[in-house]
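Saturday, quiet lab. Running sequence design on the C-alpha cells for the scaffold JK sent over.
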C-alpha cells in the first residue's frame, strides 16, 4: 500500500515546491519587467515627438488600440499591436499631429523576420506614410515582406480611423 501512495505524494510535493518558486520569481521580477516596458515606451515616445510630457488616457478604449497617449502639444499617439508575418509581430506608436496628419511612427518592438520583415522600419518604407490625413492611402509593400507591410498598413489605418472618429473625445479628455 505504501508503494502506491509514495509516488503521487512525492510528485505532489515537487509540484508544490516548483509552484512556490515560480510565485517567488514572479514577485521578484514583475516590477522590473513593468519598469523596463515603461522605459521602452518612453524611449519610443521620445523618438517619435521628442522629450516632453506625455499623458496616457487610461479610460479611453478603442478597438485595435492598446493605449492612447496625448502630448502636452495635443499630439495624439496610439500604441497599436498588429500581426505581421508573426502574430503580434509589430508593436508601434503612431503619432498624429494637432492638424490630424500622421506625424511619426516608432517601433516599441518588432518580431518580424530579420532582414526581410524588419525592413518596414526603414525610412524609405515609412516616409510615404508621413503627412497622410486619412486611412485612404496607397502603399508599396516591401518585396518579400508582404505580411509585415500589410500589418503596417493595418496599424496606420487603425490609428487614422480611430483619430478621425474620436478626435474631439481624445483632445478634450481630462
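Result came back. Writing it out in full:
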Amino acid at each position: 500500500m505504501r508503494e502506491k501512495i509514495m509516488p503521487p505524494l512525492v510528485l505532489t510535493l515537487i509540484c508544490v515546491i516548483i509552484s512556490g518558486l515560480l510565485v517567488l520569481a514572479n514577485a521578484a521580477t514583475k516590477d522590473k519587467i513593468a519598469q523596463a516596458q515603461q522605459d521602452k515606451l518612453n524611449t519610443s515616445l521620445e523618438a517619435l515627438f521628442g522629450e516632453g510630457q506625455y499623458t496616457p488616457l487610461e479610460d479611453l478604449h478603442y478597438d485595435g488600440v492598446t493605449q492612447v497617449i496625448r502630448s502636452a502639444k495635443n499630439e495624439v499617439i496610439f500604441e497599436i499591436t498588429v500581426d505581421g508575418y508573426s502574430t503580434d509581430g509589430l508593436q508601434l506608436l503612431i503619432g498624429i499631429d494637432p492638424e490630424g496628419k500622421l506625424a511619426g511612427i516608432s517601433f516599441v518592438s518588432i518580431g518580424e523576420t530579420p532582414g526581410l520583415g524588419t525592413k518596414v522600419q526603414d525610412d524609405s518604407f515609412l516616409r510615404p506614410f508621413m503627412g497622410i490625413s486619412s486611412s485612404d492611402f496607397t502603399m508599396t509593400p516591401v518585396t518579400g515582406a508582404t505580411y509585415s507591410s500589410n500589418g503596417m498598413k493595418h496599424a496606420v489605418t487603425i490609428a487614422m480611423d480611430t483619430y478621425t472618429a474620436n478626435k474631439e473625445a481624445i483632445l478634450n479628455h481630462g
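Notes for JK: The helical segments are 2-49, 123-126, 146-171. The first strand starts at residue 54 and ends at 56. Ask whether to fix the surface positions before the next round.
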